[in-house]
Every structure is written in C-alpha cells, then in structure tokens.
C-alpha cells in the first residue's frame, strides 16, 4: 500500500524502469538481428547462444558482474548520503557500464545486421515495453522489501539486484517475440492470403525454383533468358519464404508481366508444398541436392522429399539437374533431366560449353566462372526453350550474363582479383569456388569461416573443406565456431601450418590480406557467414 501512496517512490521506480528499458533495448539490438536471421524462432536464438565458443552470453555475464560490483562499491562509498540516496547514486554504475558495453559492441562489426522491417520495429517496441514493465516490477518489489525489512545494508545495496537483467536479455527477447505472435500471425496470414488471391486472379505464368544450392543464381539466369521474349517479374535477392514471395506479389502490378519467377527455399518438410499453394508453378526447376540445411532436415532423404514437393505441385514440367534426377524418380509428376550441356571448358576468363536445345547445337560462352555454372545455365536454358524462347535469343542472353552479387563474383581492384563468394555456404559450391580460385595466376588466398547447417555432417564436411584448401598460398580462417574442423582437415591433408592464419573477424582477415597480397594475386572470400553462425 505504501508503494502506491508514496508518489516520490513511484516516480523513482518509473524513471528507473524507463531508463533501463532504453539501455537494455539498445543492448538487445544485435541479438534481435540474430533472431530475425533465424526467422524469429526463439528456440533457435537460445540454441545459437549455447553454441560452443559463442561469447554472447559470456559478454552479458561480464556486464552483469561489472555492474553489480561497481554498484555495490559506489553505493557503499556514498553511504554517508543515507541509505536511500546511496542506492540511487549506485545506479550510476549501470549508466557507465551500459555505455561502455554499447561502445565496445559498436566496434564489433558483424555481417547480418538487423533489417528494419515493420515486424522488427514492432518487436523492438514490444521488447522495450517488456523491459520497462519487468524493471518497474523489480524496482517496486525491492523498495517494498526495503520498507518491510528495514535493514540499512539492504536499503543501500538493493539496486545491485538489477544486474540480473543483462543475464536475462536472451530469455526476455524470446518472451517479447512470443508476445508479438498474438498479432504477427494474423498479419502474416492475411498478407500471404492477399498474394495468393492476387496470383490466382492474374493471367501470368509462374515458374518455381528450388534446390539445396544455386537457386538465386538460377533465378537470375532464367530472368535474363526469359526477358529476351517476355516481361518477367522475379523475387528479389534471396526472398524465398512465403512472406518474401508475398511481398513481391503484393508490391507489383501483375498485369505488367507475363511470367513470375519465384525462388522457393525450405528448412523442413512441407515448406515447398506451402509455397506451391501460395504460387502454384506452371513450370519448375530443381538446381541440385546436397546436405545443406541438414541441421533441420536431419537426413538427405528428407531434403529430397521436400524439394520434390515442387514436382507434384507443378502444373507442367519440372526441370531437374541431371546429377540428381535419379533421386526424384519415385515422385509422381512431369519431370525432365537437364541433358543439354556437354564439353565444358572453364578457366579464369569464364566458362564455355556446348548447348543442345532441340535440334539446335552450338558453343556458348559466359563470363560466369566455374564448370558448375554451365549446368545451372543449361537447366535454365532448357526451361526457357520450353517456354518459347528461341535458341538464338538464349545463346545471346548467355553471352550477356553478368555476375550475381556475392556469388562467385569477380571484382578486379588495383591489379588484384577478388572472388566474392560470400553467399555460398554449401558443399558443392565451396568445392567449385576453390577450383575456380586455382585457375588464376599469382598467389591464391582463401578467406572462409567454414560451412554451416550440415547437421551431423558439419564436422566431417568442414574437415573435407580444409583438405580442399591444401596447396593454396594462404588460408585465412575466420571465427571461433566452425574453423576448428577446417583447420584440422587442412593439416591432416598435408597443409602447411605457416600458410594458415586464424582471425576473429572479417575485418581482421582483411588486415592480414593487406600485408601479403600483391598485383596479380587472387583472394577468394568463401562464405561470409552472418553472426548467427559465429
């Protein structure tokens, strides 16, 4: 009763709650970005925080320890001001160390920072409110305990207990995220429903693309080929979820397009079937299968079943990469293997191969790098040909293809070749990228944090990746979590210790490169992982 009558104490509780909520919310910004990267799955955020060598929770623990000790020391030193005021003055410890923590975090650059979407903003506001309420309740209870107990030492040190909040940041983020589901689920469902209805009413041909790897590259290639004859809309970047596809559809006037290309991603069984219900494909493509996302799929058989959902979900033909066609033989539907590519020659200037479409057979060349890209282009060419694009137009489009950003993209800078394969995180693509690197002259340098989402194969595949790096002039491993297996595989396969460097961040790797690179050298950035994997 006293707490609510004493307006001064109530005001103090409110002010402390508001200030703490602001600081804690800002401190939570990067973990919120991690949560966003996991598709707002709270369990994945907590699992990520428990990864071996993940220092996030350790940083929060250090912050809590520093604040509780400093708060106790400051409060005791100002004991002459009286128990109440010494406790209030002790709160300066939180201000000091929260600011120091934010300053340190600002200097720790990461890939995969939060994208300020409407959902993220709603979550951030919700989190601030949750912090404010929890801190207010905690401060109120501490003041009530002081009133009921009356012990001077407790009254002096009562606000030291607030150091528990840095320790609880991740669980509180998950709580706020759970609360937002009350309104986020209906919002998302209505958004997807609107896109589904819009597509169903439109006179537009839909092409779906899925696979363990190469989806975005294939989408860009197919877009270029089909654009020779049609007006084509495609999902941007790596938008391959229901909300990503719905955002593309709802933001476009479908009457302005003849064909819609939808990239379709999946992390568990049923995901592709759900996407097919959203935008039922007339034609579809499967780029290839490898143990990517095995962490969630558990087995390669589940990967095949899930990707194969696009076959039964397509109205017409599903074009499948030749090397994995047999995997889908038991799935009902109209399917065709990509058998139109032969005599592939790849070097540092591009890729040349023979393309056979119907009775037309010719040599084509692209600036895109790697023998593997010929099969991806061939798959798209076969689909475009079936959709009515002439062989001459297809060949011309192939010769005009530009690099896809961050996907084995060649950048020449001051006489140095940079191979930006930052978005590559699969076994097949990693091996192909290293082969491309070897085709260049000069010193060959690779920068990589390893491969992810491989489940029980994560260690063995990263060791295999390490073996692939033997013979390169410099191997720079980035991070703490995955590179141990890469390093072990490299050394076990005969790699030289003096050519191996391990650093904590991409920025540190770039500093190492500056000291060793010269004109004519080539550096491959292989899989620039976001923070969720470090």
How is this structure best described in words?
It is a single chain. The protein has helices at 2-5, 7-27, 29-37, 42-49, 56-77, 83-90, 92-106, 118-149, 152-157, 164-167, 169-201, 215-226, 242-250, 271-278, 294-297, 300-307, 309-312, 371-386, 391-400, 427-438, 458-468, 483-492, 506-516, and strands at 205-210, 232-234, 259-263, 283-286, 318-321, 335-338, 341-347, 350-357, 360-366, 409-413, 416-421, 444-448, 474-478, 500-503, 522-526. With 534 residues, the chain is an alpha/beta fold. It has 3 domains: 2-184, no CATH class; 202-400, Mur-like, catalytic domain (UDP-N-acetylmuramoyl-L-alanine:D-glutamate ligase); 409-533, Protein-Tyrosine Phosphatase, Chain A (Alpha-Beta Complex), CATH 3.90.190.20. The protein has a 6-stranded parallel beta sheet with strand order 2-3-1-4-5-6. Strands 10-11-15-12-13-14 form a 6-stranded mixed beta sheet, sandwiched between helices. Strand 7 and strand 8 (350-357) form a beta hairpin. The longest helix has 33 residues, at 169-201. It is globular.
């Amino acid at each position: 009763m006293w707490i609510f009558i004493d307006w001064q104490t109530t005001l103090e509780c409110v002010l402390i709650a508001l200030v703490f909520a602001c600081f804690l919310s800002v401190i939570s910004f990067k973990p919120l970005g991690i949560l966003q990267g996991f598709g707002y799955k709270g369990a994945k955020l907590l699992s990520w925080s428990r990864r071996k060598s993940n220092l996030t929770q350790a940083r929060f623990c250090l912050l809590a320890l520093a604040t509780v000790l400093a708060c106790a020391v400051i409060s005791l030193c100002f004991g002459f001001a009286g128990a109440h005021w010494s406790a209030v003055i002790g709160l300066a410890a939180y201000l000091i160390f929260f600011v120091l923590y934010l300053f340190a975090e600002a200097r720790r650059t990461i890939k995969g920072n939060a994208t300020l979407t409407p959902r993220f903003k709603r979550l951030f506001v919700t989190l601030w409110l949750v912090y404010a309420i929890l801190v207010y309740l905690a401060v109120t209870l501490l003041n009530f305990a002081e009133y009921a107990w009356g012990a001077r030492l407790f009254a002096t040190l009562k606000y030291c207990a607030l150091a528990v909040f840095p320790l609880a940041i991740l669980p509180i983020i998950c709580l706020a995220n759970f609360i937002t589901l009350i309104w986020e689920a209906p919002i998302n469902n209505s958004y997807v429903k609107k896109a589904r209805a819009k597509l169903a009413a439109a006179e537009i041909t839909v092409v779906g693309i899925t696979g363990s790897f190469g989806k975005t590259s294939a989408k860009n290639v197919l877009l270029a080929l089909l654009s020779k004859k049609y007006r084509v809309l495609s999902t941007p970047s790596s938008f391959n979820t229901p909300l990503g596809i719905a955002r593309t559809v709802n933001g476009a006037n479908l009457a302005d397009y003849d064909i819609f290309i939808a990239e379709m991603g999946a992390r568990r069984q049923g995901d592709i079937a759900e996407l097919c219900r959203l935008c039922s494909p007339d034609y579809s493509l499967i780029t290839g299968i490898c143990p990517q996302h095995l962490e969630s799929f558990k087995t390669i058989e589940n990967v095949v079943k899930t990707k194969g959902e696009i076959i039964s979900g397509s109205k017409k033909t599903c074009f499948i990469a030749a090397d994995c066609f047999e995997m889908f033989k038991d799935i009902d539907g109209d399917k065709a293997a990509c058998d139109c590519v032969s005599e592939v020659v790849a070097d540092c200037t591009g890729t040349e191969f023979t393309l056979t479409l119907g009775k037309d057979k010719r040599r084509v060349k692209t600036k895109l790098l790697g023998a593997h890209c010929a099969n991806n282009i061939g798959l798209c060419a076969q689909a475009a040909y079936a959709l009515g694009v002439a062989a001459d137009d297809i060949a011309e489009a192939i010769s005009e293809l530009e690099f896809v950003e961050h996907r084995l993209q060649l950048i020449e800078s001051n006489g140095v070749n940079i191979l930006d394969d930052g978005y590559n995180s699969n076994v097949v693509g990693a091996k192909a990228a290293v082969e491309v690197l070897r085709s260049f002259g000069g010193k060959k340098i690779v920068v990589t944090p390893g491969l992810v989402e491989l489940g029980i194969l994560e260690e063995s595949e990263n060791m295999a990746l390490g073996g692939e790096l033997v013979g390169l002039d410099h191997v720079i491993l980035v991070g703490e979590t995955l590179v141990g297996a890469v390093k072990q595989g490299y050394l076990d396969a005969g790699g030289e210790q003096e050519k191996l460097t391990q650093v904590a961040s991409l920025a540190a790797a770039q500093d190492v490169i500056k000291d060793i690179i010269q004109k004519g050298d080539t550096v491959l950035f292989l899989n620039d992982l976001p923070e969720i994997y470090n």
